């Protein structure tokens, strides 16, 4: 899988299809800098967007492509530390902090 395919697949595996740069880098097994550059390239292709700095989400076109990649993807660690942290705490914490800002 290419860098971009790995990032799309990792983002699609998140429950709400949004994650931080660090979580995506870990899930895609990429250095954070490489993940950041890949995500910027995916923005240019219209596959992801960044509603808040450091938080990434799939666009509708990205969801379609990621769905096709996910079905063909190799088995992946479902118990990744970054995934568990994001799902169980950091995602909720970020959501609450954004709600508080409003």
What is the strand arrangement across the widest sheet?
Answer: 1-3-2
Count of separate structural domains? 1
CATH architectural label: Orthogonal Bundle
How much helicity do the residues have? 55-70%
Distance from N terminus to C terminus (CA atoms, Å) equals 40 Å
Rg from Cα: 13 Å
Approximately how much beta-strand content do the residues carry?
5-15%
CATH class: Mainly Alpha
CATH topology title = Arc Repressor Mutant, subunit A
* Helical/strand content category: mainly alpha
Number of distinct helices:
5
Main β-sheet, in a few words? 3 strands, antiparallel
| Poorly predicted parts | none
Q: How does the SSE layout of this entry go?
A:
Blueprint: H1 3-13, E1 18-20, H2 21-27, H3 32-44, E2 48-52, E3 55-58, H4 60-72, H5 81-101
Helix pairs in contact: 1-4, 2-3, 2-5
Report on the structure:
This protein has a single domain (3-101), classed as Winged helix-like DNA-binding domain superfamily/Winged helix DNA-binding domain (Arc Repressor Mutant, subunit A). The protein is 64% helix and 12% strand. The chain contains five helices and three strands, in the order αβααββαα. The chain has helices at residues 3-13, 21-27, 32-44, 60-72, 81-101; strands at 18-20, 48-52, 55-58. Strands 1-3-2 form a three-stranded antiparallel β-sheet. The chain is globular and about 35 Å long.
Please outline what is shown here:
Helix content is 64%, strand content 12%. By secondary structure, the chain is mainly α. It has a three-stranded antiparallel beta sheet with strand order 1-3-2.
């Amino acid at each position: 899988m290419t860098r971009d395919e790995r990032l799309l697949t990792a983002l699609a595996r998140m429950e709400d299809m949004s994650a931080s740069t660090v979580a995506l880098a870990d899930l895609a097994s990429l250095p954070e800098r490489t993940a950041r550059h890949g995500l910027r390239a995916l923005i240019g292709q219209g596959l992801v967007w960044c509603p808040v700095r450091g938080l990434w989400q799939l666009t509708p076109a990205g969801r379609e492509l990621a769905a096709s990649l996910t079905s063909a993807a190799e088995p992946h660690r479902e118990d990744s530390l970054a995934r568990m942290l994001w799902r169980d705490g950091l995602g909720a914490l970020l959501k609450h902090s954004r709600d508080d800002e409003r």
